Amino acid sequence: MKPGPDIAFDLIVIGGGINGAGIARDAADRGIRTCLLEQGDICNGTTRWSSRLIHGGLRYLEHAELGLVYESLRERETLLRIAPHLVRRLQLVIPIYRGARRGRLIITLGMWLYDLLSMRKSFPRHEMLTAAEALETLPFLKPEGLQGAASYHDAQVVYAERLVVENILAARAAGAQILTYSRVDRVLTAGRRVTGVRYTDLRSDRQHDLTAKVVVNAAGPWVDRVLEKLGTPPRKLMGGTKGTHIIVPGFPGQPKVACYLEAESDGRPFFIIPWNGMLLIGTTDIRYSGNPGTVQADADEITYLLDETNRVYPNAGLDRTSIYYCYTGVRPLPKKTRGTEGDITRRHIIKHHRHIAKGLYSVIGGKLTTYRHLAEEVTDRVARRIKLRGAKCRTASDPLPGADGEYATTVDVLDSCAALHPESREHLLNVYGCRAELIKALVDDDPELGAEICPHSHAIAAEIVFAYEHEMPTTIADVLLRRTMIGLSSDQGRAALPRAVAIARRHQGWSQARADEEERRYLREIDRMRP
Ligand SMILES: Cc1cc2nc3c(=O)[nH]c(=O)nc-3n(C[C@H](O)[C@H](O)[C@H](O)COP(=O)(O)OP(=O)(O)OC[C@H]3O[C@@H](n4cnc5c(N)ncnc54)[C@H](O)[C@@H]3O)c2cc1C
Predict the structure, then answer these.
(1) Is the Cβ atom of 220 under 6 angstroms away from ligand 1?
(2) 530 near 325, Cβ under 8 Å?
C-alpha cells in the first residue's frame, strides 16, 4: 500500500518512540487501519536516552503516587512475560549511610510498601543487609559511615531500542503502515474535527497529505511543536526536564547488581547500573525548554555524576577520560513551573483536544515501563471514537516477535552452527531472541556472514543484511545504533563501521560516494555523545 492523499486511515500515530510504537501495535492488532509517521528512524527520541529500567519507581512512593507504582509493577511483570529476551530481572542495592536524608527507617518503610504493591508478582521480597553484607554484595562501596543497605529487585531493558523496533515489527505484521523519515508538518482539520496530517518525506523532500479519523500525537518532548501549527494551538502541555547518563568501564569483578544512591550534593536519587558490559550512571533532572533533538550534556552534569560516583565508589577514580560516551534526553513531562523537577509526576495523561479538533489526542508524560498500558488506554479511546466493538487488547499476553517461539530451541539451533562463536551466539540471543534463528539461516546460506565484525559486541556480518531485509533501516546509523546494538559498545561501533558500511553497500547497491557519506554521518552522530 503506497501512501497518498486518497488513503483513509482510521488512525495516524505521530512518533515512533516507545509510546507511538506501542499504540501502533495495539491498534493494528485490533484491526484499526493504522499509519505511524516518524521524523527520523524508529526510536529516534527520548526512549533511547532513558535509564532503561523497567521499574515500579520506588522514588514515587515519596510523592504518594501509589497508583503509578502499582501500575508500573504490574507492567514490569507483563513485560517480563511478553519480552523475556529483552527485559531481565535486576538486583538493586540501596546503601544507607549515616546522616543521609533517607535513613534506615524511611527506606525500610518504602521497601515494605513496595513489596506490598508487588504482591502476587514473581519478584523476591526485599532484604535488609548489614554493612558487612552490603560490602560483600557491592565490594566497591565506601565503608566509612555505611550502616547497612536494602536489597530488592526490579528489571532492566538493556536494549530499549529493540523494544521499540519489535513493537514496530509487530505493528507492521498486523497491517500498520510505518513511514520513517517522515516529518509531520501539520495536523489537518476541517471545522472542529481532525482529518489527517501533512508530512514531508525527508528522503525525497516531498510533501504529502494523509487522511484519518483519529490522530494521536505521541511525539514525546516534541508534542507542543506538533500542535504549534494548528489554527488555534492549545496552551503549552509539556514541561520537559533533561537527564544525562555517562557510560564508563565496569570494574574488574563487577557484580550484576545496580546501586541506587542518594547524591550527597543535592539528595537526588541516582543509579549506577551494570549495563551492556559497562556501567551506566545517571541521571540528572534539569528543566529544559530547548530543542529536544539537539540537547546535550553540560560540563556540570558530567562533573556531578563523576563526583557522586567517586564519593560512594572511592576506588573508582573516575574522571572525564574514563567516560566512553554519554547521552542526554528530555523527559516528556507535563508542564509544571513550580516545585522541584523531582516533584513532577511521571504519570501519563491522554489529552483529547476536543475543543480544537475532535479526534486529535496528545500523549503527555509516561514511562518506558508503562508504555503498553498507555497504548492500551489510547487504543481503547480510538476504538470507541471509530465505533469499533469487540476487538480486545491482546498485548498483555501476546509475545513480542523475539519471544514468539521456543527460546530453548533457538539456543540449540545457534549451538549447532559451527560458524558462530559462543560470544556471537549470546549476542544474537540477547538482541533478537528467537528471531536469531533467521540470522543463523543467513549464515547457513553464506558462512562468510558468520564472521564477527565488532570485537566488543561480537555482532556478525549477517546482522547488517538481516536489518536491511527485515527491519526497515535507512542509514548505517540506524543499523548500528538502533538494530544491531553495535553502536552501544564501548567504542560506539568505530571498529565495525568500515565493514558494516561495505556490507550495506553491497546489499543496498550504494555508490562509493554514498558509502563514504554514510560513514561520515555516522561519525558525526556519535560525536554528539562525547563528554
Ligand atoms: C534521562 C531519562 C531517564 C529515564 N529513565 C527511565 C527509566 O529508567 N524507566 C522508565 O520507565 N522511563 C524512563 N524515562 C522515561 C521514558 O524514557 C519516556 O517517558 C519515554 O521513552 C517516552 O517515549 P515517547 O515515545 O513518548 O517519546 P520519544 O521516545 O521521544 O518518541 C517520540 C518520537 O516522536 C518523533 N517526532 C517528534 N516530532 C515529530 C514529527 N513532527 N513528525 C514525526 N515524528 C515526530 C521523535 O523523533 C521521536 O522519535 C526516562 C527518561 C529520561 C529522559
Answers:
(1) yes
(2) yes
